Amino acid sequence: MNKFVKLVYPLAEKSLVEVYTSRISFSQKETIYNIVDFFKEKIFLKFKLKKIRRKIKNNIQLSKIINLHDEDGVDVKKIRSMIKQIESGHDILSDCGLPNIKLIKTKNNELVLFDGHHSLLSYICADKKYLSEVPHLIVQSENNYFSDNELHVFFGKHLVKLKNKNWRDYVINWNVSEKKQFCKRKRNNIGELYNSLISELFRKNF
Protein backbone atom coordinates (compact mmCIF):
# COMPACT_ATOMS: atom_id res chain seq x y z
CA MET A 1 0.00 0.00 0.00
CA ASN A 2 1.31 3.43 -0.90
CA LYS A 3 1.96 5.99 1.83
CA PHE A 4 2.98 9.58 1.30
CA VAL A 5 5.22 11.86 3.30
CA LYS A 6 4.80 15.54 2.57
CA LEU A 7 7.15 18.26 3.77
CA VAL A 8 5.84 21.82 3.86
CA TYR A 9 7.93 24.94 4.50
CA PRO A 10 6.69 28.54 4.82
CA LEU A 11 7.89 31.25 2.47
CA ALA A 12 8.20 35.00 2.88
CA GLU A 13 5.34 35.39 0.41
CA LYS A 14 2.42 34.42 2.65
CA SER A 15 0.26 32.99 -0.14
CA LEU A 16 2.89 30.37 -1.04
CA VAL A 17 4.58 27.38 0.58
CA GLU A 18 7.41 25.12 -0.52
CA VAL A 19 6.38 21.46 -0.75
CA TYR A 20 8.07 18.11 -1.27
CA THR A 21 6.05 14.86 -1.49
CA SER A 22 7.46 11.33 -1.41
CA ARG A 23 5.53 8.15 -2.20
CA ILE A 24 6.56 5.09 -0.21
CA SER A 25 5.28 1.54 -0.67
CA PHE A 26 4.56 -0.10 2.68
CA SER A 27 2.67 -3.09 4.01
CA GLN A 28 -0.35 -2.48 6.22
CA LYS A 29 1.64 -3.82 9.19
CA GLU A 30 4.00 -0.85 9.13
CA THR A 31 3.21 1.93 11.60
CA ILE A 32 3.22 5.68 11.03
CA TYR A 33 6.49 5.84 12.99
CA ASN A 34 8.05 3.26 10.64
CA ILE A 35 7.05 5.36 7.64
CA VAL A 36 8.67 8.51 9.07
CA ASP A 37 11.84 6.61 9.99
CA PHE A 38 12.10 5.08 6.51
CA PHE A 39 11.60 8.46 4.86
CA LYS A 40 14.26 10.07 7.06
CA GLU A 41 16.91 7.36 6.62
CA LYS A 42 16.33 6.30 3.00
CA ILE A 43 15.22 9.53 1.35
CA PHE A 44 15.63 12.73 3.37
CA LEU A 45 19.22 12.06 4.48
CA LYS A 46 20.35 10.55 1.17
CA PHE A 47 18.97 12.79 -1.55
CA LYS A 48 18.67 16.46 -2.34
CA LEU A 49 14.93 17.03 -2.36
CA LYS A 50 13.40 19.12 -5.11
CA LYS A 51 10.71 21.28 -3.54
CA ILE A 52 7.86 22.88 -5.47
CA ARG A 53 6.24 26.23 -4.73
CA ARG A 54 2.49 25.97 -4.32
CA LYS A 55 -0.35 28.34 -3.55
CA ILE A 56 -2.07 27.81 -0.22
CA LYS A 57 -5.57 26.49 -0.85
CA ASN A 58 -6.94 25.68 2.59
CA ASN A 59 -5.14 27.38 5.45
CA ILE A 60 -5.62 25.48 8.70
CA GLN A 61 -5.66 27.16 12.08
CA LEU A 62 -2.97 25.80 14.40
CA SER A 63 -5.40 26.06 17.32
CA LYS A 64 -7.75 23.47 15.74
CA ILE A 65 -5.14 20.71 15.52
CA ILE A 66 -5.76 17.79 17.92
CA ASN A 67 -3.16 17.28 20.63
CA LEU A 68 -1.98 13.95 22.05
CA HIS A 69 -0.43 15.51 25.19
CA ASP A 70 -1.96 17.87 27.71
CA GLU A 71 -0.19 20.31 30.03
CA ASP A 72 1.21 17.46 32.16
CA GLY A 73 3.18 16.35 29.11
CA VAL A 74 4.61 19.77 28.30
CA ASP A 75 7.87 21.33 29.53
CA VAL A 76 7.35 25.11 29.62
CA LYS A 77 11.11 25.80 29.87
CA LYS A 78 11.63 23.97 26.59
CA ILE A 79 8.96 26.10 24.92
CA ARG A 80 10.54 29.32 26.21
CA SER A 81 13.86 28.32 24.69
CA MET A 82 12.20 27.54 21.37
CA ILE A 83 10.35 30.88 21.34
CA LYS A 84 13.69 32.69 21.56
CA GLN A 85 14.98 30.60 18.66
CA ILE A 86 11.97 31.49 16.49
CA GLU A 87 12.16 35.17 17.39
CA SER A 88 15.82 35.18 16.35
CA GLY A 89 14.75 34.04 12.87
CA HIS A 90 15.39 30.29 13.12
CA ASP A 91 12.87 27.51 12.55
CA ILE A 92 12.44 24.59 14.95
CA LEU A 93 13.80 21.49 13.22
CA SER A 94 15.16 18.14 14.37
CA ASP A 95 18.90 17.50 14.42
CA CYS A 96 18.73 15.98 10.93
CA GLY A 97 16.76 18.95 9.56
CA LEU A 98 13.30 17.41 9.41
CA PRO A 99 10.43 19.53 10.79
CA ASN A 100 9.65 18.70 14.41
CA ILE A 101 5.94 19.17 13.76
CA LYS A 102 4.48 15.91 12.40
CA LEU A 103 0.83 15.33 11.59
CA ILE A 104 -1.66 12.83 10.23
CA LYS A 105 -5.28 13.14 9.14
CA THR A 106 -8.09 10.98 10.55
CA LYS A 107 -11.12 9.57 8.75
CA ASN A 108 -13.10 12.48 10.26
CA ASN A 109 -10.78 14.94 8.47
CA GLU A 110 -9.10 15.94 11.75
CA LEU A 111 -5.42 16.83 11.85
CA VAL A 112 -3.62 15.12 14.73
CA LEU A 113 -0.21 16.22 16.03
CA PHE A 114 1.76 13.08 16.84
CA ASP A 115 5.12 14.77 17.32
CA GLY A 116 6.25 18.35 18.00
CA HIS A 117 3.88 19.65 20.68
CA HIS A 118 6.56 21.94 22.14
CA SER A 119 7.47 23.25 18.68
CA LEU A 120 3.89 23.99 17.69
CA LEU A 121 3.12 25.73 20.97
CA SER A 122 6.28 27.79 20.54
CA TYR A 123 5.19 28.97 17.09
CA ILE A 124 1.79 29.96 18.50
CA CYS A 125 3.57 31.93 21.25
CA ALA A 126 5.55 33.63 18.48
CA ASP A 127 2.24 34.76 16.94
CA LYS A 128 1.94 32.14 14.20
CA LYS A 129 -1.69 31.25 13.57
CA TYR A 130 -1.83 29.03 10.49
CA LEU A 131 -0.23 25.75 9.47
CA SER A 132 1.27 27.35 6.37
CA GLU A 133 3.39 29.55 8.66
CA VAL A 134 5.33 26.67 10.22
CA PRO A 135 7.53 23.92 8.76
CA HIS A 136 5.73 20.59 9.12
CA LEU A 137 5.56 17.00 7.93
CA ILE A 138 2.33 15.18 7.08
CA VAL A 139 2.05 11.41 6.68
CA GLN A 140 -0.78 10.38 4.35
CA SER A 141 -2.23 7.09 3.15
CA GLU A 142 -3.67 6.37 -0.30
CA ASN A 143 -7.15 7.40 0.85
CA ASN A 144 -5.67 10.48 2.59
CA TYR A 145 -6.43 9.38 6.16
CA PHE A 146 -5.49 6.81 8.80
CA SER A 147 -7.96 4.65 10.69
CA ASP A 148 -8.52 5.03 14.41
CA ASN A 149 -6.76 1.70 15.03
CA GLU A 150 -3.65 2.93 13.23
CA LEU A 151 -3.53 5.93 15.58
CA HIS A 152 -3.32 3.66 18.62
CA VAL A 153 0.43 3.30 18.00
CA PHE A 154 0.90 6.80 19.43
CA PHE A 155 -0.02 5.48 22.88
CA GLY A 156 2.94 3.10 22.95
CA LYS A 157 2.85 0.49 25.70
CA HIS A 158 -0.53 1.83 26.83
CA LEU A 159 -2.32 1.10 23.55
CA VAL A 160 -3.97 -2.04 25.02
CA LYS A 161 -5.96 0.28 27.28
CA LEU A 162 -7.71 1.71 24.22
CA LYS A 163 -9.52 -1.55 23.42
CA ASN A 164 -13.18 -0.72 22.72
CA LYS A 165 -12.47 2.95 23.56
CA ASN A 166 -12.23 6.12 21.49
CA TRP A 167 -8.65 7.41 21.43
CA ARG A 168 -10.04 10.97 21.22
CA ASP A 169 -11.05 10.72 24.88
CA TYR A 170 -7.45 10.20 26.04
CA VAL A 171 -3.96 11.72 25.95
CA ILE A 172 -0.51 10.31 26.61
CA ASN A 173 2.11 12.17 28.68
CA TRP A 174 5.50 10.47 28.60
CA ASN A 175 7.34 12.72 31.08
CA VAL A 176 5.27 11.71 34.12
CA SER A 177 5.20 8.48 36.13
CA GLU A 178 4.02 5.41 34.19
CA LYS A 179 0.74 5.20 36.12
CA LYS A 180 -0.17 8.75 35.05
CA GLN A 181 0.96 8.62 31.42
CA PHE A 182 -2.34 7.42 29.97
CA CYS A 183 -5.14 9.67 31.12
CA LYS A 184 -8.48 11.25 30.27
CA ARG A 185 -8.34 14.14 27.83
CA LYS A 186 -8.71 17.63 29.31
CA ARG A 187 -7.90 19.73 26.21
CA ASN A 188 -9.62 19.06 22.90
CA ASN A 189 -7.09 20.78 20.68
CA ILE A 190 -3.85 22.78 20.60
CA GLY A 191 -5.75 26.03 21.14
CA GLU A 192 -7.18 24.80 24.43
CA LEU A 193 -3.78 23.43 25.46
CA TYR A 194 -2.14 26.78 24.70
CA ASN A 195 -4.79 28.63 26.73
CA SER A 196 -4.16 26.37 29.71
CA LEU A 197 -0.46 27.33 29.64
CA ILE A 198 -0.66 31.08 28.90
CA SER A 199 -0.17 32.32 32.47
CA GLU A 200 2.93 30.13 32.93
CA LEU A 201 4.39 30.86 29.50
CA PHE A 202 4.15 34.62 29.81
CA ARG A 203 4.74 35.24 33.48
CA LYS A 204 6.88 38.32 34.17
CA ASN A 205 10.11 36.53 35.02
CA PHE A 206 10.14 34.77 31.63
Keywords:
206 residues, alpha+beta, Conserved hypothetical protein from pyrococcus furiosus pfu- 392566-001, ParB domain, six-stranded mixed sheet, two-stranded antiparallel sheet, 6 helices, globular
What does this structure look like?
The chain is of the alpha+beta class and 206 residues long. It has one domain: Conserved hypothetical protein from pyrococcus furiosus pfu- 392566-001, ParB domain (Alpha-Beta Complex). It contains 6 helices and 8 strands. It is globular. The strands form 2 sheets. The protein has a 6-stranded mixed sheet, covered by helices on one side. The termini are far apart.
Task: Detail the topology: elements first, then pairings.
Blueprint: E1 2-10, E2 16-25, H1 32-44, E3 52-55, H2 76-87, E4 102-105, E5 111-115, H3 117-125, E6 136-141, H4 148-151, E7 170-172, H5 178-181, E8 182-184, H6 190-201
Parallel strand pairs: 4-6
Antiparallel strand pairs: 1-2, 1-6, 2-3, 4-5, 7-8
User: How many individual domains?
Assistant: 1
Q: Provide the CATH superfamily.
A: Conserved hypothetical protein from pyrococcus furiosus pfu- 392566-001, ParB domain
Mind telling me the CATH class?
Answer: Alpha Beta
Helix content: 25-40%
Look at the helices and sheets and give the structural class: alpha+beta
User: What's the total number of strands?
Assistant: 8
What general form does the structure show? globular
Instruction: Compute the average pLDDT.
Output: 93
The separation of the N and C termini measures 48 Å
The largest β sheet comes out as: 6 strands, mixed
Listing every helix as H and every strand as E from the N terminus to the C terminus, the arrangement reads EEHEHEEHEHEHEH
- Gyration radius, in Å: 17 Å
Strand content: 15-25%
Poorly predicted runs of 5 or more residues: none
What is the strand arrangement across the widest sheet?
3-2-1-6-4-5
Individual helix count: 6
Examine the coordinates and then state which fold CATH places here, giving the name of the CATH topology.
Answer: Conserved hypothetical protein from pyrococcus furiosus pfu- 392566-001, ParB domain
CATH architecture level-2 label: Alpha-Beta Complex
